[in-house]
Amino acid sequence: MRVSVFRKAHFNAAHRLHNPNWSDERNERVFGKCNNPNYHGHNYNLIVKVTGEVDPDTGYVMDMKVLSDIIKEHVTDVLDHKNLSLDIEAFADLNPSAENIAIVIWNILRKQLDNKYDLSVTLYETERNYVEYPA
Amino acid sequence: MRVSVFRKAHFNAAHRLHNPNWSDERNERVFGKCNNPNYHGHNYNLIVKVTGEVDPDTGYVMDMKVLSDIIKEHVTDVLDHKNLSLDIEAFADLNPSAENIAIVIWNILRKQLDNKYDLSVTLYETERNYVEYPA
Amino acid sequence: MRVSVFRKAHFNAAHRLHNPNWSDERNERVFGKCNNPNYHGHNYNLIVKVTGEVDPDTGYVMDMKVLSDIIKEHVTDVLDHKNLSLDIEAFADLNPSAENIAIVIWNILRKQLDNKYDLSVTLYETERNYVEYPA
Amino acid sequence: MRVSVFRKAHFNAAHRLHNPNWSDERNERVFGKCNNPNYHGHNYNLIVKVTGEVDPDTGYVMDMKVLSDIIKEHVTDVLDHKNLSLDIEAFADLNPSAENIAIVIWNILRKQLDNKYDLSVTLYETERNYVEYPA
Amino acid sequence: MRVSVFRKAHFNAAHRLHNPNWSDERNERVFGKCNNPNYHGHNYNLIVKVTGEVDPDTGYVMDMKVLSDIIKEHVTDVLDHKNLSLDIEAFADLNPSAENIAIVIWNILRKQLDNKYDLSVTLYETERNYVEYPA
Amino acid sequence: MRVSVFRKAHFNAAHRLHNPNWSDERNERVFGKCNNPNYHGHNYNLIVKVTGEVDPDTGYVMDMKVLSDIIKEHVTDVLDHKNLSLDIEAFADLNPSAENIAIVIWNILRKQLDNKYDLSVTLYETERNYVEYPA
Predict the structure, then answer these.
(1) In the prediction, which pLDDT does B72 show?
(2) Partner residues linked to D11 by β-bridges
(3) Chain A nearest CA to F4, separation (Å)
(4) Is B34 annotated in the active site?
(5) E85: three-class secondary structure by DSSP
(6) Which of A1, A58, A66 has the most B C-beta neighbours within 10 Å, making it the best mutation to test the interface with B?
(7) 3-class SS at F53?
(8) Domain for residue D72, yes or no?
(9) What is the distance in angstroms between the Cα of A104 and the nearest Cα belonging to chain D?
(10) Nearest CB partner across the interface for C3, out of D127, D129, D131
């Protein structure tokens, strides 16, 4: 009786894709307009997937209100209306690509959830580009 | 040449989350506003996923019209504009959480489909909360 | 420099369409499955449109956080996870059709907004059925 | 035989809401997290509405490919992956609120379209907040 | 107490944009890939808007089931899975642009609705291109 | 550190479902209105999923601009505004069902991508019917 439950959330942030070990030319060539030194931004949509057994007393895998509060406290309140490149320590030495943001969010949430649950996150950078971790 | 085919459907229903073995206080604490004794409701969106081999004569895994008719006859015509807690026998002794509704729908559809097909169902209780069974 | 600003919100509720002055037969004939005596329900999506001059100091017609808080306090916290037919006094003698719910919400919000603003509300009962007031 | 035609486009940008004539405290109080000095960002969705007579030779109000190219050249290629507050001259002395961005876009497009057409623009800052100009 | 009610429907069809009074070269230049002599196709989404007074006995502007049945019988059952250019008489001498399809649908529906109602139709040819008639 | 990245694209095309080895009666019975000899059409939405390791220098599984260009050059520019049954050689002897179109697109893209990547494609024929290959 294993079921996956999904909760959607969102945050709005600025970022810049940049590798400090590369020349400006190489950064511009690889990252294109995403390398704008003045930053650009996105409305990120996040889907958190938690898989586990259904509790026969509640009919829940987990209380979605609890999951929603965890996402809010540990992820969206932290990242919303921020510049990921400047304001968030996790990206001090890590390029804030959608892939890396998803991995950072997964690591944050993994610590908040009981080990009996499996976890994956899907992060939409735009309606046309999104990533899922783990694959 | 195994392909998954997906068909979306929808139904609108009322329900109440409640465990009759618990006190009112505990029900209220665990289920919160979902425990309203007068019920509340949702537009449920359902995605049925059927996986199988592509038939070389038709190019179909299965005829989507047939799948659509099965979903309509056995699921959405049964559940639409109903109070799941009061009108549907499957929930007489089962809390109509999204997880349990998905399992009930899966069990209904499993009996209608040839064993050569794999089946899973995704049920959206809202745009922000949904479940998938089996995980 | 008049601009319209729009804010989306949502609530989940049960209701029943019923005219107490009519026979059961007539209610059933006119309202069909929406007349289920055990209620059914919807995820209602609400769009509130406010039209006014842009304030040159802020660039705002009005602060969307203020508008969002007004909608939450006076509309969605009041209606969410309720049975409109049983729990909401405005529908004690008024059929909770999408049209009437929209008019009730408009009347609530009109009192909360400065008269310099024009107001209209759009209410989605489902993705396929929605209403706008005033027309 | 007047018909309105609509074309959707999108761009991703950073911005900061700030009034340079105000103290930091007042900016923070009025604009809240939108005042983050390091900027934040959005995926902006734009809908351009053009109204006119249907040309009997083509069945078109105007060629949507032409409209799409005008939007791309004069709006989305200019604003995409930019910091509106730093990179775009129109916002050098104008707060880049959704209202003001919509007015700026309308002014740009108005110059590119024949006077026989009526024009309005709708700008989504998020899925939940959007504006329309003129009202 | 005038309210607008909206009903969404859809149909899938092939078409070709072509003016028989023009040379092949001019058709190709004006209509581009939409002039493919072998046709191309779309999933058309239709929104029908009906405006009128709310009936105090029902709370309805009009019964959405009745409106839905009218749309199905007179529009979507007629146009669905058809080649608009070849199968539909209304387009024998009329280019099936989105603008003209919307006008044809409006003319069909106008005859089915009581004159006390105002009517407009919005037709999505794609998610990015749509038209509204009357403007 | 394997992550899946997804890119959405779209194309509009006509097609007809038909098995040339069958009688007209059997084709009509099996394929219904999809067998219309004059064709019908769809807005196809395509999601391409590529799975691989995150490159520590870029934070990318692969550059989404490169993936987007591959999809455009090899898939959507080839299929857009075409009649799949008449214009596309891959369907000369293959019924253009959603299942078969997805397999054809997968085969095209597989040749364009490094073997270190896993690939799957999801193809929406309508908002309600879609397929995924491989399952």
Answers:
(1) 98
(2) D44
(3) 5
(4) yes
(5) helix
(6) A58
(7) strand
(8) yes
(9) 19
(10) D131
- Please give the residue range of the domain that contains residue A77: 2-12+41-133
Q: Return the residue of C nearest to E47 by Cα.
A: C128
Q: Is C108 a domain residue? A: yes
Between vectors from CA C47 to CA C42 and to CA C51, what angle results, nearest 5°?
A: 160
At A55-104, the pLDDT tens digits run 999 999 999 999 999 999 999 999 999 999 999 999 999 999 999 999 99
Average of per-residue pLDDT across B48-71: 98
Q: Given 3-state DSSP classes, what are the helix, strand and coil percentages for chain D, each rounded to the nearest 5? A: 35, 30, 30
Q: Count the domains in chain C.
A: 1
Q: Specify if A17 maps to a domain.
A: no
pLDDT for the residue numbered C72: 98
Active site residue C132: no
End-to-end CA distance of chain A: 23
How many angstroms separate the first and last alpha carbons of chain D?
A: 23
pLDDT tens-digit map of E52-106: 999 999 999 999 999 999 999 999 999 999 999 999 999 999 999 999 999 999 9
Q: Do A135 and F4 touch (CB under 8 A)?
A: yes
- Can you give the CATH number for the domain in which B118 is found? 3.30.479.10
Q: DSSP for A39-63?
A: -EEEEEEEEEEEEEEPPTTTS-SS-
pTM above the 0.95 mark?
yes
Which residue, among D65, D63, E129, E127, has the nearest Cα to F44 in the 3D structure? Answer: E127
Between D1 and D68, the more confident residue is D68
3+ Cβ–Cβ pairs closer than 8 Å linking D and F: no
**Does ipTM exceed 0.85?**
yes
- Residue C61 forms part of a structural domain: yes
Q: Is F117 helix (H, G, I), strand (E, B) or coil?
A: coil
| Interface test with chain C among B39, B45, B127, B130, by most C beta carbons within 10 Å | B39
CA distance B121 to B58: 24
Look up residue B10 and give its amino acid. H
Judge whether A18 and A31 are in contact, CB under 8 Å: yes
DSSP string of E89-116?
GGGSSS---HHHHHHHHHHHHHHHS-TT
Contact A41 D12 (CB under 8 A): yes
> CA quadruple B85, B89, B95, B101: dihedral positive or negative?
negative
Interval C120-132: pLDDT, tens: 999 999 999 999 9
Distance CA B99, CA A6 (A): 11
Q: Would the CB atoms of D12 and A40 count as touching at under 8 Å? A: yes
